[in-house]
Amino acid sequence: MVWAGVVINGRTCLHVVANGTMTGQRYIDEVLLPPVRLFRGAVGDKFVFMDDNATCHRTLAVQDCLDSEGIQRLVRPACSPDPNPIENVWDALGRQVAGRNNPPPNKNTLIRALTEEWDKLPQQLLDNVVQSMVRRVECCITLHGGHIPY
């Protein structure tokens, strides 16, 4: 599993969860708070956070954390037919890794390739993903984990 956040004119580092299970508390500590606090501070009160309905995102601990940080979450139905726009980013990242001359032969090489290709993705692609969201908000970070189609 990989996790990352995108905003207009920016992105977080790619966070690869190579070992263990992503729990609500682990999600808060490793994935959620570092970038969300940074972006929330830069944007201010108009900041809106978007995630998907992954089990670790919907724990009481995560909701309490967002509430205590004063972070508004973009509400999405549990079984929304509207996919998270960042799925397009995961597809592009997977294609970049798969298109390398030497495909990664093991997990460590795959993690390195994912990280390198994440940094190379054009910012315009990420900006287009954010701008394509059905509900327009002044600033929204979408932080999402996904399986790279590789």
Instruction: Report mean pLDDT, rounded to a whole number.
Output: 81
Please trace the helix and strand order, writing H or E for each element: EEEHEHEHHHE
Helix content: 40-55%
Gyration radius, to the nearest Å? 15 Å
Task: Summarize, please.
Residues 46-105 form the Tc1-like transposase DDE domain. The protein is an alpha/beta fold and 150 residues long.
How would you describe this protein?
With 150 residues, this protein is an alpha/beta fold. The protein is 43% helix and 16% strand. It contains five helices and six strands. Strands 1, 2, 3, 4, 5 and 6 form a six-stranded mixed sheet that branches.
Could you outline the blueprint of secondary structure elements for this entry?
Blueprint lengths: L1 E6 L2 E2 L3 E2 L7 H20 L3 E4 L9 H10 L2 E2 L13 H12 L8 H14 L2 H9 L7 E8 L4
Parallel strand pairs: 4-5, 4-6
Antiparallel strand pairs: 1-2, 1-3, 1-6
